[in-house]
């Protein structure tokens, strides 16, 4: 068992020993046959794998097989020169087979085989490996950015991000190793040519001087040995070179080579039909082999007709199945709605719905390989960890009335967003540091409104090399959906969700729940407070702190808006973490005059507090806010306005009518160890 575990180590040591230790012809024959068998196994393996990383040990195998062939070449040369051209049955058999009784013609054929192996296959595989390595390394930054974009939007989790980065790193290492390993194949081909010339020239000299043979006899003996020895080394080398070319060209495949050829080569039956007709026209060329041309032409035509008929039958069968399903559905639908209770079930609305055009169904349907539902599950988990609330079930439907490439997002039955993507295309976004232009279909990214281009698979690698962030169509939809849900999550928190959250808190702190609910705050008021927090993007994971604040302040204060402000101050560490870089925060401050004007305009009624501020004053405040935001937009990706605690809620209500996504914080919501840097001030100019 220990020997089996170290069989590769033993085999490599044996190869090194072959270079030094003379081998008997019987053992040399066995090693030549093994070399051919190993090369054949490697060639077939490269044809059946789906991707290069499925055979990641190939560069190491390339080194081992090259060393094996060189060792066998040296051993065979030793026998050829020392045994009068006799180096085993394998070499003799290959030599006689190729020479065919004519040493000159046979040797020319051998030279042609060597030239084809060296110039065509070896050089081609070397160039492909070099280009693949360069493009893979150049595309790494773009791929890393795409992973970071998916991670930040919640499409993937940390584990999946690590796995993707690992794959990218393995690809870079593999193609880098292949770039160097192909030089071994090139060197092996050159060495084989030199060894063949040594065998022929040195063998002729030794045979005439030491063996006493005439020139024609020497030429016959050593030409057979030279050609045979060259072939048993060049045939494995040819298969290894072909395998090298195979494995470095498997980047764009989805299955093994056999499946890809059958699927893609036979996907256009009209091409086969036309090719067969063109081949048959060659029969009219004088002296052409009519029988062979006719056989091939009729085979192509028959194959094309057969594929066309098969496609037609499949299409008719699919249409019949679709029609029968529609008839069955209509009949079942009528019977189903005879029961009036089933009609009442139609009156409810789903919290979140998404409707898709028929071209996008392949991205959504799990039966067709779509992973949309899995991405929703991942987003729900990530969002729950960040915000402390669980996203409801997303109802997916098809919609034949919209554009085939469009999708809709509905909240409680009403459309709130829509977008359009192109299946089998990728969205390329310029992060601002791209190094070159790309061709594509101009579009606007639906989630953030960023200009982009739809590009094909063939253009993807070049776009990544130029520094573009490349995103697949499904990721575009998921990102858009996640942003829409984040913006409307406060509308989706029901009282049932509140009860579930309270039950979750009760598992660890039953006393706080019993103390606050419903003695101090009702479920409906708690719902309003949590909705206020979520509307401004404040996480509610720390439910115990929220309930403690309500227990402390809820006895004297019943206004849910004011209670929300106290809760925000309690959650200042959470708010600070969200809007700061860890040590400081850059803000736009509010002028004292504006704060006084807002406070003096606040009026209380039995339904709450409202602002009775003059329209001219509102216009001036909005203009000043807009002006300051424009000034600092280069410094701040997300502008933050800082106010006094008592003014924050009123100013937020006022500015929400014009800039709904603006972040407004109070001094009491920022942790005391954070340095505040005011880079602008909102004030009314006289």
Q: Keywords, please?
A:
alpha/beta, bacterial flagellum biogenesis, four-stranded mixed beta sheet, four-stranded antiparallel beta sheet, Glutaredoxin, 64% helix, 686 residues, single chain, flagellum, 25 helices, cell projection, 10% strand, 14 strands, transmembrane
CA-based gyration radius: 38 Å
Strand tally, please?
Answer: 14
Number of domains: 5
Beta-strand residue fraction: 5-15%
Order of the strands making up the biggest sheet: 2-1-3-4
For the record, give the distance between the C-alpha atoms at the N and C termini, rounded to a whole number.
Answer: 92 Å
Helix segment count?
A: 25
> For the residues shown, what is the average pLDDT?
78
Tell me the structural class: alpha/beta
Low-confidence stretches: none
Amount of helix = 55-70%
Assembly context of the chains: single chain
**Main β-sheet, in a few words?**
4 strands, mixed
């Amino acid at each position: 068992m220990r020997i089996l575990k170290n069989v590769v180590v033993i085999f490599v040591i044996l190869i090194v020993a072959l270079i030094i230790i003379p081998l008997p012809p019987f053992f040399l024959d066995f090693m030549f046959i093994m070399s051919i068998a190993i090369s054949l196994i490697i060639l077939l393996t490269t044809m059946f794998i789906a991707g290069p990383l499925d055979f990641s040990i190939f560069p190491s195998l390339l080194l081992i097989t090259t060393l094996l062939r060189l060792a066998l070449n040296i051993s065979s040369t030793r026998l050829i020169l020392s045994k009068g051209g006799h180096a085993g049955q394998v070499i003799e058999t290959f030599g006689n087979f190729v020479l065919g009784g004519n040493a000159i013609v046979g040797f020319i054929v051998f030279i042609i085989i060597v030239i084809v192996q060296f110039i065509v296959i070896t050089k081609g595989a070397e160039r492909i490996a070099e280009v693949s390595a360069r493009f893979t390394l150049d595309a790494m930054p773009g791929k890393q950015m795409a992973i970071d974009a998916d991670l930040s939007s919640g499409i993937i989790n940390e584990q999946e991000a690590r796995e993707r980065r690992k794959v990218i790193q393995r690809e870079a290492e593999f193609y880098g190793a292949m770039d160097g390993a192909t030089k071994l194949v090139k060197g092996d081909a050159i060495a084989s040519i030199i060894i063949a010339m040594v065998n022929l020239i040195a063998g002729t000299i030794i045979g005439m001087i030491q063996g006493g043979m005439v020139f024609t006899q020497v030429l016959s003996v050593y030409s057979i040995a030279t050609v045979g020895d060259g072939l048993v080394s060049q045939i494995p080398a040819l298969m290894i070179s072909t395998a090298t070319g195979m494995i470095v060209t498997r980047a764009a495949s989805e299955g093994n080579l056999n499946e890809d050829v059958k699927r893609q080569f036979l996907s256009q039956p009209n091409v086969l039909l036309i090719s067969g007709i063109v081949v048959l026209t060659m029969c009219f060329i004088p002296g052409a082999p009519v029988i062979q041309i006719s056989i091939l032409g009729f085979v192509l035509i028959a194959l094309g007709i057969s594929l066309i008929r098969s496609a037609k039958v499949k299409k008719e069968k699919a249409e019949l199945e679709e029609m029968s399903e529609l008839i069955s559905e209509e009949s079942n639908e009528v019977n189903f709605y005879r029961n009036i209770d089933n009609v009442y079930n139609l009156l409810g609305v789903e919290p979140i719905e998404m409707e898709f055009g028929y071209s996008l169904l392949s991205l959504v349907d799990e039966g067709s390989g779509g992973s949309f539902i899995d991405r929703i599950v991942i987003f729900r988990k990530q969002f729950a960890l960040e915000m402390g609330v669980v996203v409801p079930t997303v109802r997916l439907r098809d919609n034949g009335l919209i554009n085939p490439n469009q999708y809709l997002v509905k909240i409680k039955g009403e459309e709130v967003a829509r977008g359009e993507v192109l299946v089998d295309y990728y969205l390329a976004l310029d992060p601002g540091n791209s190094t070159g232009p790309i061709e594509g279909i101009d579009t606007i990214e639906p989630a953030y409104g960023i200009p982009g281009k739809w590009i094909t698979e063939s253009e993807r690698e070049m776009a990544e090399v130029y520094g573009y962030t490349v995103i697949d169509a499904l990721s575009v939809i998921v990102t858009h959906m996640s942003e829409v849900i984040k913006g409307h999550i406060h509308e989706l928190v029901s009282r049932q969700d509140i009860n579930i959250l309270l039950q979750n808190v009760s598992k660890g702190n039953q006393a706080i729940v019993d103390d606050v609910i419903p003695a101090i705050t009702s479920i409906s008021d708690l719902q309003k407070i949590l909705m206020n927090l979520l509307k401004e993007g404040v996480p509610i994971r720390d439910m115990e702190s929220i309930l403690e604040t309500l227990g402390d302040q809820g006895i004297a204060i019943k206004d849910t808006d004011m209670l929300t402000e106290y809760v925000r101050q309690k959650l200042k560490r959470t708010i600070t973490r969200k809007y700061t870089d860890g040590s400081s925060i850059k803000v736009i401050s509010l002028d004292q005059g504006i704060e006084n004007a807002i406070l003096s305009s606040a009026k209380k009624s039995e339904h709450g507090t409202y602002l009775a501020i003059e329209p001219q004053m509102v216009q001036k405040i909005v203009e000043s806010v807009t002006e300051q935001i424009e000034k600092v937009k280069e410094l701040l990706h997300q502008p933050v306005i800082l106010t006094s605690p008592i003014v924050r809620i009123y100013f937020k209500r006022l500015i929400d009518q014009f800039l709904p996504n603006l972040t407004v914080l109070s001094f009491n919501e920022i942790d005391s160890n954070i340095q505040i840097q005011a880079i602008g001030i909102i004030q009314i100019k006289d």
